[in-house]
Amino acid sequence: MELTKQLAEAVLSADPLQDERAIQMAKNGLLDVAAAALAAKEDEGIQKLMQLVEQEGGAAQIPVIGQGKKVSRQSAAMLNGYLIHALDYDDVHSDVRGHPSAVIVPALLSQLTECKGYGERFLAAYITGVEVMARLGESIGKAHYERGWHNTGTLGAIAAVCAIGYLKQVTREELTKAIGFAGAQSAGMRKQFGSDMKPLQAGLAAKTAVWSMDLACSGFGGSESVLDGELGFFSLYGDQELAEKRLLEGYGSIWRIVSPGLWFKVYPFCSAAHHAADAIEFLVKERPSLRDQIEQVDVIFPPGGDAALTERTPLTGEEGRFSVEYVIALAVFGHTLSLDAFTKKTISPEMRTWMKRVSRGYDQTIEPHPDAVPKGRFTILKLTLTDGTTISRRVDIPRGAPGHALSKEDIMQKLSSVIDASHAQQILQAIEAANDSSYLQLLA
């Protein structure tokens, strides 16, 4: 099968704007992107990256979110991708097993030079990028992530280049070559979770997409079949046979931005810990003095359900974004699960000692909820108290996930918590009017 050419054809010929639900979800996504990125505008990592980019020089073309400065198109894609994903407060998609908007949106924003806007086509391109990234996630197979690849980085560049291709209405030949260039540069490791490099992998994927499309449109030579065959992307990174069945099946019939849909986060840490966060917050609310009564905490996942939670003994709040032990300890110690708890600040010795009471376990005999998010996942918290009694709480669909989703009003509240209400309202108005160039300027 000529997967590369067929994907390019499907991308360029579809019309996401026929689905009003997809349009509304894209608008919600842009609103959530603004909240996640502007919450990170004071991040230490972005200051270091800005300094490096400014030392390198280049044309001042595209604003960097929250920084009041412009940089080159490729650098803007990288920096804005980093910002959106910096705090792990940005959206997730269960089919991707990663973060689509952190790659797709900055790649698209990099095309808005000289205040040129695309209107609703920008929304359609965003929907397209999410669609392709979700299909890549479905097609690559579970082993890709479990071997240590970071799907946001490895799948994001190809998805974002498809979004750019749709936006700019390039030819099929240009898009197939651009997919090839992006595939050749796709990278990202879960080993980097809990560090500045993790969100930078999203930014690098966005930058790769911009560069790959520039190469293709310049006439630069490259393969038009990078997704195909035994030496192709899926054979190297995952499951070629699965890809041939899943990548293009029913393209455009139900947009993945709608179903299963984007997951807009309530908490600023890895979504794999959100089930446990909901569970412990419920239990603490029921028993405010729980901290002094807990002897042991057992956290039960399905096999592999905690793969993204790479930190069991985090030293800092930043590492704690990927630690269910830290999330539980925060709630038990009476702290809110807010941005302030997940910085580079060192975790107190008292809390680190308490985290040793938390043990992870796995049970493949438990029947998953049919509507669980992600599919087949759950978390059960079992607390053993000093008097020998136990209490427990199971969560299958965390707050913010599809099926328990945030409304537009909820996302506006999230945005208004990091910027003033009038600024948030202006951003919302730009999104509702499909004024992408104004949206970008308001983020600057």
TrEMBL record:
Gene3D superfamilies: 2-methylcitrate dehydratase PrpD. InterPro entries: MmgE/PrpD_sf (IPR036148), MmgE/PrpD_sf_1 (IPR042183), MmgE/PrpD_sf_2 (IPR042188), MmgE_PrpD (IPR005656), MmgE_PrpD_C (IPR045337), MmgE_PrpD_N (IPR045336). Transmembrane segments: none annotated. Residues 6-240 form the MmgE/PrpD N-terminal domain. Pfam families: MmgE_PrpD_C (PF19305), MmgE_PrpD_N (PF03972). GO terms for molecular function: lyase activity. Residues 267-431 form the MmgE/PrpD C-terminal domain. Belongs to the PrpD family. This is MmgE/PrpD family protein.
